[in-house]
UniProtKB/TrEMBL annotation:
Entries under Gene3D superfamilies matching the protein: YVTN repeat-like/Quinoprotein amine dehydrogenase
InterPro entries associated with the record: Quinoprotein_ADH-like_sf (IPR011047), Vgb (IPR051344), WD40/YVTN_repeat-like_dom_sf (IPR015943)
Source species, domain of life: Bacteria
Protein name: Outer membrane protein assembly factor BamB
Length: 646
């Protein structure tokens, strides 16, 4: 038996996807279903130089791909894999025309890396890990004299310097201690470094070229978030702030007078200085291109709105034509003489995106939400056929309620109904500082959902929506400081599991909680911590005897739903809670056929209720769902599998 399980695990880990357009599986145990048609061109990082546009297309399991396109017509010139990278927000061009890329890698323990591309030879060189422990390189910027390239990282908000002459990478530390992110960098002509930080204070650190701190600029606004986009234009520093409330003002700071000159209302573009033309800065406001006059402070809309979806990024000029990109892989032009624009369809090669979430549809199909660029796919267990809808956002939660499909979409914790054609937004909790609706269940007349707040904030929410009447109940901070990441429902009561982490790296409690919320009475019946020391719980579910079960990253627990008393707890493995910086939903738990079935720490288990013993059935696994046909559906990155329970 052990040999059989080992063989199945090996098959799961190394099987080559063959596509999910095949006959439905039969028999028992594992079946590899290939890949669902979740593809897209996510191109967050971009730069332009000498008539070429450089973008990086994200990939579910890697490698990410650096694309080179002609700025004049979006024609694809070449594509180059970036080893060990899943994607990039960070692309810049140095004075010698070398292209530098900072990457991220979502694999546990993997680090963000730096790469250099030489356009003349087409050579990609990996320069190394930015800094040990830093998983994400958010931004790169080149010194005007070509001596160095700087990078900003997370989760420890470090500034990294790459010496272009010696090839040495230096960790310059965290310019604002305690901040998790350096979200953007700008380098002045004299080499002074400006680092925008977050996710709490939104401060801008000023440093000498060697990383020596000069001073820190406090933001001109209140709240939490990021100093997201920076640019130095003459004696002015432009900073776009991405706040936890979803408002994104841009500050104009006078470097000579050391004061904020003005604050411009909501600015949406990812770079604010890439479209500079004299004293005019081209930016995106209210979903259309506009110009900001740096002398008068007036913003004038141009009327151009067709950026191709996603976040627009003005890159620079070809004569009188502004060239920009979208995070959906498209390019656009705006001619300042004629006032007309043009959007080009994406010419970069689409990549598989990771399966972010799984849920059952009202039609018996298994629905899967795609990461980042999103997309939604459905797989029919009866026919083996699949379907894809590309223009659906990143679904964190998927559930059927009263015969209709509902999606919980990031960012802004948006709730949509989906009728098989286009999604319809029913509400958003962006104004409540919420972002990720992981937990969704059908709760009688109500659709219930639980959320994680935006970066830089704490306090998730329990939401209830009656789609028939439009009535909604939003309970933020129901358990103070906690995010709501798991839900179950029975007899008018919503049961919730929490994480002590919100949008910051510091836990807000010594243990995560389970609560019982009585909908009719609008009261909490009880709140308890079932597993001492566990800072995030995860999925909860009922069995056929009405007992409430939970699966945490290191424990299985059983509770009395009437009193909230923990009846039994069993540790299934260890977890590094002492060093954990942010843990949200890491488990899936289902009851079927007398057993509990769970996914945790990248593994899938069968759990015996009597002994609470766990038996490994698959790894590596990211999502687990019990389908309407009574079998399990599992995913890892873009790969899709089933475990048939006989």
């Amino acid at each position: 038996m052990r040999a059989l399980i080992a063989a199945l695990l090996l098959l799961l880990a190394f099987a080559t996807p063959v596509g999910a357009e095949s006959a439905p599986p039969t028999g028992c145990g594992f079946q590899t279903l290939g890949t669902l048609p979740l593809t897209g061109a996510t191109t967050a990082g971009a730069a332009m130089d000498r008539g070429r546009v450089y973008t990086v297309t994200s990939s579910a399991s890697g490698p990410a791909v650096l694309a080179v396109r002609n700025a004049a017509d979006a024609r694809l010139v070449s594509e180059h894999p970036l080893p060990l990278a899943l994607g990039s927000w960070a692309v810049t061009v140095a004075p010698d025309h070398s292209v530098y890329v900072g990457s991220y890698n979502a694999t546990a323990g993997a680090m963000g890396r730096l790469f250099r591309f030489e356009p003349a030879t087409g050579k990609i060189t990996e320069l190394g890990i930015a800094a040990p422990g830093e998983t994400f390189v958010w931004t790169v910027a080149a010194a005007p004299d070509g001596s160095a390239v700087y990078a900003g990282t997370s989760p420890n908000g470090k500034l990294i310097r790459y010496d272009t002459r010696t090839g040495r990478l230096s960790d310059l530390g965290s310019p604002v201690p305690g901040e998790q992110f350096i979200r953007d960098l700008a380098i002045a002509r004299d080499g002074t470094v400006y680092a925008g930080t977050g996710a709490q204070s939104m401060k801008v650190a000023i440093l000498r070229p060697d990383g020596t701190p000069i001073r820190v600029i406090d933001p001109p606004i209140q709240g939490n978030g990021y100093a997201y986009d920076l640019d130095v234009i003459g004696h002015r520093l432009l900073v776009r702030f991405a706040t936890s409330t979803g408002v994104n003002p841009m500050g104009v700071y006078d470097l000579r007078e050391r004061r904020w000159e003005r604050v411009v209302d909501d600015v949406d573009s990812l770079t604010v200085g890439g479209g500079r033309h004299g004293n005019q800065v081209y930016l995106v406001q209210n979903d259309q291109l506009g110009t900001l006059d740096l002398r008068s402070g007036k913003v004038r809309p141009t009327g151009f709105t067709d950026f191709g979806g996603g976040a627009a990024r003005p890159l620079g000029w070809r004569g009188d034509v502004l060239v920009g990109t979208s995070s959906t892989g498209r390019m656009w032009h705006y001619d300042r003489r004629t006032g007309k624009g043009r959007m080009f369809e994406s010419t970069v090669t689409g990549q598989h995106v990771s399966i972010r979430s799984l849920g059952n549809g009202p039609d018996g199909r298994v629905y899967a939400g795609g990461f980042f660029t999103g997309g939604l796919a459905a797989y029919d267990p009866k026919t083996g056929q699949s379907q894809f809808w590309p223009n659906v956002g990143q679904s964190e939660g998927i559930v059927t309620h009263k015969g209709k499909l509902y999606l919980g979409v990031y960012p802004g914790a948006r709730i949509y109904s989906f009728d098989g054609d286009t999604p319809t937004q029913l509400l958003s909790l962006s104004d409540q500082e919420q972002d990720r609706p992981f937990a969704m269940i059908s709760a009688g007349e109500w659709l219930a959902f639980g959320t994680v707040p935006k970066s830089g904030t704490v306090g998730g929410a329990l939401g209830l929506l009656n789609p028939d009447t439009g009535q909604k109940i939003i309970k933020r901070n129901l358990v103070p400081g906690h995010s709501v990441i798991g839900l179950a429902y029975r007899d008018g009561v919503v049961y919730g599991a929490t994480s002590a982490f919100g949008g910051i790296s510091t836990p807000q409690d010594t243990a995560a909680k389970v609560f019982a919320y009585d909908i009719a009475a609008d009261t909490l019946r009880w709140v308890t911590a079932p597993v001492a020391g566990d800072l995030a719980l995860g999925s909860i579910t009922f069995d056929d005897a009405g007992r409430l079960w939970g699966l945490t990253p290191d424990a299985v627990f059983e509770m009395d739903p009437v009193t909230g008393q923990t009846l039994r707890t069993a540790k299934h493995q260890t977890y590094p809670w002492a060093t954990a910086t942010q843990v949200w939903l890491d488990t899936n738990l289902e009851f079927h056929n007398g057993m509990l079935w769970g996914k945790v720490q990248g593994k899938a288990y069968r759990i015996d209720r009597a002994t609470m013993a766990v038996t490994l059935i698959a790894r590596p696994i990211s999502n687990l769902l019990k389908g309407a046909d009574g079998h399990l559906y599992l995913s890892r990155f873009e790969n899709f599998h089933t475990y048939r329970i006989c």
